[in-house]
């Protein structure tokens, strides 16, 4: 039998990246965390944490963390007299979190959410490695050991403020103008701006860009005239209606299909969240 307080310490060190941060999360001393991880390593007979900055679980350690997460989640679904909330780790893209996911999370009781924010094109990788129990992703699957539920389409538009367009694109979004006009990029994984340029202006254009790892920051930057960017229509629509934002080229939206993928073994325990996500998606996303 595995000692679950020791597994909890292992998971905390991996996810917080340090023994002292794990100790703060668990409410024990760093020395106690170290002893628990060492006891588990002695029990398994294998290194479970690579000590460093940050501390990272080995492959064996990740398998144990995945087992611990699944057991805690399944126990939380049992009709126990004094249930304790389980922590559920999921991967969500920033734009979904900013526009429609929060009401779904709030509708699920008895769960504490540990949300990993990553691009929808790569969030499936977190599920593949067992780092999360579920992910909102642009990939429909299949993924071994996982189920997939379609959610709907998140629509993006290329937009900027009227002042920005007058200053940087007085003749419209021509290729030379777009090569000079400052844009906004969420991260190195964000390809939406490049994809829009390729589809509407021509072959891919290298453009100067601000890096803003915030969905709301993207909207604020566009409103302030900082740059142009691909904005979720859910966020941009009120500003378009009031003339504070304009599409660079009308009717050139990009549609991103979203899916909810989750580990099949924990599907019954995840059912309330799956239902809440589907309901929230029906209200906010574009459905086929």
Descriptive account of the structure:
The chain is an alpha/beta fold. Among the domains are: 1-61, Winged helix-like DNA-binding domain superfamily/Winged helix DNA-binding domain (Arc Repressor Mutant, subunit A, Orthogonal Bundle), CATH 1.10.10.10; 154-255, D-Maltodextrin-Binding Protein, domain 2 (3-Layer(aba) Sandwich). 46% of the residues lie in helices and 20% in strands. It contains twelve helices and eleven strands. The protein has helices at residues 4-16, 19-26, 30-44, 59-76, 94-106, 123-128, 162-168, 175-180, 192-200, 215-224, 233-241, 267-284, and strands spanning 49-50, 56-57, 86-92, 111-117, 134-137, 146-160, 183-185, 209-211, 229-232, 246-247, 254-263. Strands 3, 4, 5, 6, 9, 10 and 11 form a seven-stranded mixed β-sheet that branches. Strand 1 and strand 2 form a beta hairpin. The protein is elongated. 37% of the residues are buried. The model has no long low-confidence stretch (mean pLDDT 95). Residues 2-58 form the HTH lysR-type domain. Pfam families: HTH_1, LysR_substrate.
The CATH homologous superfamily of the domain at 154-255 is termed Periplasmic binding protein-like II
- The counted number of beta strands is 11
Q: Please report which band the strand proportion falls in: under 5%, 5-15%, 15-25%, 25-35%, 35-45% or over 45%.
A: 15-25%
SSE string: HHHEEHEHEHEEHHEHEHEHEEH
| The first-level CATH class name of the domain at 154-255 | Alpha Beta
C-alpha end-to-end distance: 48 Å
- pLDDT under 50 segments (min length 5)? none
Shape: elongated
**Roughly how much helix do the residues carry, as a percent range?**
40-55%
For the biggest sheet, the summary is:
7 strands, mixed
Question: How confident is the prediction overall: mean pLDDT?
Answer: 95
The value of Rg in angstroms is 22 Å
CATH topology of the domain at 154-255, what is it called? D-Maltodextrin-Binding Protein, domain 2
CATH architecture of the domain at 154-255: 3-Layer(aba) Sandwich
Output the structural class: alpha/beta
Number of helices: 12
């Amino acid at each position: 039998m595995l000692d679950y307080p020791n597994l909890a310490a292992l998971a905390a060190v991996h996810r917080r990246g340090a023994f002292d941060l794990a100790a703060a999360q668990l409410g024990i001393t760093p020395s106690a965390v170290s002893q628990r991880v060492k006891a588990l390593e002695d029990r398994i007979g294998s290194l479970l944490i690579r000590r460093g900055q940050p501390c990272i679980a080995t492959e064996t350690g990740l398998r144990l963390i995945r087992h611990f997460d699944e057991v805690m989640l399944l126990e939380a679904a049992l009709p126990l007299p004094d249930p304790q909330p389980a922590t559920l780790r999921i991967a969500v893209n920033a734009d979904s979190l900013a526009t429609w996911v929060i009401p779904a999370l709030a509708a699920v009781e008895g769960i504490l959410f540990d949300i990993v924010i990553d691009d929808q094109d790569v969030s499936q990788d977190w599920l593949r490695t067992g780092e999360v129990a579920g992910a909102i992703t642009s990939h429909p699957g299949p993924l071994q050991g996982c189920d997939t539920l379609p959610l709907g389409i998140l629509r993006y538009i290329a937009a900027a403020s009227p002042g920005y367009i007058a200053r940087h694109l007085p003749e419209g979004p021509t290729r030379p103008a777009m090569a000079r006009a400052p844009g906004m990029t969420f991260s190195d994984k964000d390809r939406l701006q490049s994809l829009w340029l390729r589809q509407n202006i021509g072959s891919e254009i290298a453009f100067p860009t601000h890096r803003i790892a915030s969905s709301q920051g993207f909207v604020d930057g566009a409103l302030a005239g900082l740059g142009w960017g691909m904005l979720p229509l859910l966020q941009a629509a009120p500003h378009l209606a009031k003339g504070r934002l304009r599409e660079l080229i009308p009717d050139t939206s990009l549609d991103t299909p979203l899916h909810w993928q989750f580990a099949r073994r924990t599907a019954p325990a995840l059912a309330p969240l799956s239902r809440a996500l589907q309901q929230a998606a029906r209200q906010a996303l574009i459905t086929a």
